[in-house]
Amino acid sequence: MNKREPTDEPAVAGVILAAGTSSRYGGENKLLATLEGEPIVRHAARTLVHSSVDPVVVVLGHEADRVQAALEGLAVDPVVNEAYDTGQASSLRAGIEAVCDRGDVDAVLVALGDMPFVAPETIETLVSAYAAGAGEALAAAFDGDRGNPVVFDARFFDALTDVDGDIGGREIFLESDSSALIEVDDAGVRRDIDVPDDL
């Protein structure tokens, strides 16, 4: 793949990880818990659908049919990760592979299905920072603390599909010499839903 010039408009795809078992949430699937009358995962997906990232792939696993039904009517491409119980890395792998199957992209923005409070403007800030050459692995940050989503340049795709367990892209981000935090005025990048009280 040719080195992208910062002046080019990059092709950035979106991947939403929505395959987990919600083990800390109790007996319910947290992605289907409602916030303002809609499932959490629908809030998270809509943020990407209404942004410039394209396509938007949603990786399903635990209760895949129910989660997919919660996304009905949104312009997302569902992909089922049959190995979802092995950890987040397998879902990240499934998402990256699905994006690559759909055509050439310069980067992927990875978001989490249990983070419904991320502002749409944050997505555009990250994409713009990537386009401007701020780095090749970019994470949203609030008050200096790293959060999500994260943008990975295509040069990391092989490494991202080769990780195991629950590490996901965190280790790759921390070890890269071209990673950067992108400060945003959005506390939502640090708010995920782990237990019912988080709502």
Walk me through what this model shows:
There is one protein chain. The protein has one domain (12-193): Alpha-Beta Complex (Spore Coat Polysaccharide Biosynthesis Protein SpsA, Chain A). It has 199 residues and is of the alpha/beta class. It has a seven-stranded mixed sheet, sandwiched between helices. Helices cover 27% and strands 23% of the residues. The model has no long low-confidence stretch (mean pLDDT 88). The termini are far apart.
Topology readout:
Layout: E1 12-18, E2 34-35, E3 38-39, H1 40-49, E4 56-60, H2 64-70, E5 77-80, H3 88-101, E6 107-112, H4 120-131, E7 137-142, E8 145-153, H5 157-160, H6 170-175, E9 179-183
Parallel strand pairs: 1-4, 1-6, 4-5, 7-9
Antiparallel strand pairs: 2-3, 6-8, 7-8
Strand order of the largest sheet: 5-4-1-6-8-7-9
CATH architecture heading = Alpha-Beta Complex
Count up the helices: 6
Radius of gyration: 16 Å
- What is the number of strand segments? 9
State the CATH class.
Alpha Beta
Percent range of helical residues: 25-40%
CATH fold title? Spore Coat Polysaccharide Biosynthesis Protein SpsA, Chain A
The CATH homologous superfamily name equals Spore Coat Polysaccharide Biosynthesis Protein SpsA, Chain A
Structural class designation: alpha/beta
Strand content: 15-25%
The stretches of 5 or more residues where confidence is low (pLDDT under 50) are none
Number of domains: 1
Distance separating the two termini: 43 Å
Taken from the alpha-carbon principal axes, the silhouette is globular
